[in-house]
Amino acid sequence: MFRYVTRAAVVAGSVAGLLWVAASPGTATSGQERQFVVLYAQGGSAEAAHAAIAAAGGTVLSENTAIGVATVTTKSEAFQAAADASSAIAGVARSTVIGHAPDDGSAVGKPSVKLDPAQTDLRGASAGSEKAKNGKKQEPLAGLQWDMQQIGATADGSQRYEQGNGVRVGIIDTGVDGTHPDIAKNFDKALSRNFTTDIPVDANGAIVDGPCEHPSCVDPVDEDDNGHGTHVASEIASPVNKLGIAGIAPKATIVNLRAGQDAGFFFLQPTVDALTYAGDHGIDVVNMSFYVDPWLFNCADNPADSPDAQAEQRTVVTAMQRALDYAYNHGVTLVAAAGNGASDYSKTIIDSSSPDFAGVPGEAPYERTIPASCTSMPSEGNHVLAVTSTGISKRKAYYSDFGNGYADLSAPGGDVYDTADNKRDITKAILAAYPKHLAVERGQLNPDGTPNTPSVVESCHKGVCGYYQYLQGTSMASPHAAGVAALAVGRLGTRDHVNGGLKASPALVEQVLRGTATNTPCPTPAAFTYTRQVQQPDGSFVTVTSTQTCEGTPTNNGFFGDGIINATKVARGH
């Protein structure tokens, strides 16, 4: 996942040409308009919360009544303190200060895609396509899908028993290219939603999403200007259509529940809105390859943080857990990427990446000591299956976060250094669909439409061509588990006559995934040293090592959780 497992910074959207970017009471001048995300008291009434917000000098802009969250605007410097003092309010987190988006063309071009270190390592490796060799009914690029072979999600494996027909999978991500020829057949445009508004620049004037592609700054539900969400959707449910690849559940329905910005940030209000929408509209499984911005870890009382920052982080955790509970209690199986920081979440670690979004002028990340009690959302939320990443050899990927008691399951997410000589090989990443317009914008295609980089692969059938890219990360592992969850729902679910789709207990789906996973013990020795030969600009190689320690039993441990998911066992009922 990008560690894009991105944190929900509480940021709002763009309204009437104005960019709403965050502020705190201490930095605002008198009369300056600011925004906050307000969490209502559990079990309290919306009317009481509205009254408290009004009394504190705020106005509700948008509201999620299912879990009691609202985005509020105010000119009162005392709003946060006044609202916090009310028994009708459970928490207040800053959202944004109003700034103007450039309209003179000065913000030219889109920003660089916000990738995690695992993904940026992919540039410049070698790759190629090949046909399937075994005579089975496989897709043209199946020979490049080592990941599907690892978990048995193949034509002669899980596809013989279950393909996810009737299952709805929600992609909570940066969007989905619903027009991609290897996605379109399974894409439900009518049910899809975009909960975000493009943010051209942050509070420091740095480009975030860049100029809006549409006058409203709201992208259509079948558009992805990042590529991450399309890759995730393709892994889960690309159809069998003689083009490109097949997903794990090739007959499942893809629903875009966009909560991520073009740049890869996932903020609080869009994320909780996507989860509650999933619960209300018959979504069976959601994949969450992100964390909620701006805090990678949310700490209730970290002395490194200001009181306002502590309150903000408490609010993020509480609001997200309410949304996760709501979706889970409405039949949604919740799957999330574990993260790409190569960190043990069960230990005290150092985080220097948060806050990662400039919500107030001059804001920047700073170093914090993070005890295990701090929470990354959604991967550490209750009811969420946190998925670590494996490479082609089935070792835990070098970048994957882990932790005994944190890791629930593991799945292939790619490891380009999982090679005999420890040098990068891009074919050891994960291949899935890629929006053509991004390949064009990024200069990855020749004039005749063929790829000019080994990170992109083309597949054509009857004059229709699709593009695919190699990515690695727990963002890629999580959708493998979500796809297998879709197979479980397809096999065990009953028709949902109210919302459509199928109904299956998320607890039962989790039990099936855990019970069928391939037990994978810790390496020997348990303190495993990863060695990478990293090529330098001058062509030389530098050896980089990292030692990570696995704790636990052969059947449940910090590297693999309950084991590597097994699509064939789930599809055939063990």
Q: What can you tell me about this protein's structure?
A:
By secondary structure, the chain is an alpha/beta fold. Helices cover 20% and strands 21% of the residues. The strands form 6 sheets. A 7-stranded parallel β-sheet has the order 8-9-7-10-11-14-15, with helices on both faces. A 6-stranded antiparallel β-sheet has the order 1-2-6-3-5-4. A 3-stranded antiparallel β-sheet has the order 16-18-17. α5 packs parallel to α9. The protein is globular and about 65 Å long.
Strand order of the largest sheet: 8-9-7-10-11-14-15
Cα shape: globular
Biggest sheet statistics: 7 strands, parallel
User: How many strand elements?
Assistant: 22
In percent, how much strand structure appears in the residues?
15-25%
Low-confidence stretches: 1-30, 97-135
What topology emerges from the helices and strands here?
Blueprint: E1 14-15, E2 18-21, E3 34-40, H1 46-55, E4 58-64, E5 69-74, H2 79-84, E6 89-100, H3 117-120, H4 146-151, E7 168-172, E8 193-194, H5 228-237, E9 253-258, H6 268-280, E10 285-288, H7 307-329, E11 333-337, E12 349-351, E13 368-370, E14 384-390, E15 409-412, E16 430-434, H8 436-441, E17 456-461, E18 464-471, H9 474-492, E19 494-495, E20 502-503, H10 506-516, E21 527-535, E22 541-549, H11 567-572
